[in-house]
Amino acid sequence: MIKILLMLVFFICCSTGGEIAMSYGMKRVGEPESFRPMPLLRFFWRAARSGWILLAAPLMAASFYSLLILLSWAPISLVIPASAFNYVVGTFGAKYLLKEDVSIKRWLGVLMVCAGVTIVLLTGQG
Amino acid sequence: MNHEHRLRFKTLAMVLLMVVCANTGDLLLKRGMTQIGEVRISFSGLWQPLLATIHNPTIWLAILFLLGFTLCYMTAVSWADYSYVMPAGAFGYAVQTLLAIVVLHETVNAKRWFGVIVICIGVLLVGQTKPRTSTVPAEGASANRAAVSS
Description:
By secondary structure, chain A is mostly helical. Chain A has helices spanning 2-29, 37-48, 51-73, 76-84, 86-96, 104-122. Chain A is globular. The interface between A and B is large, with 48 and 50 residues.
């Protein structure tokens, strides 16, 4: 059980950490100047050289593989709600690390999305 | 249209494009892997499907759509808050359900519909909030400011 819990914590940390690093990195990179091919290429080239994006990519890969390992170790009824819990942890990360202003309305929306995703995935039709 | 409305509109449009790319990519990947057949876990069992994957145009099309998803996601988080884009992306489950009915002709049970409705209400709530509240300075912007001040 401790092994599963540790892997769950690792999965959530990698997944949320990767997405937060990606979000921070993309804000540092800035918006694309326009949607013409050359400015878009320049935008993605700037992103590809950002240290934050280079940190996000292995974290996201680690989260994907830890999810696969978790699915082989634990029942899906445990893994799926835990992966949907990412929405809540991600919102905490956004609030405290990225200093985003998360209103009550946004929290309510996040909790509903988290509950909805759990229901959908537990139907086994995903 | 003021700045906030424009930002909300373009972010939600990008999230929709991101969701469509992700679901189309997954669907094509499923179709491509079905064409290849069941993968057996052994050296020869893995080698054959790997070669078949490289030569399968459906798999390449799927990769193209999944790459599109990543680029849309990167663009969306460069505009709006992570806590805005992330839950809005869950709208993909609703699109996935519709695709399952329309493309794969699957039957969807009441529990799944309930989950999809809960997700849609959640996305609607998040969608009504201010899309960008954080003030992370862009590297280009700070460089520009430094150039102006010097």
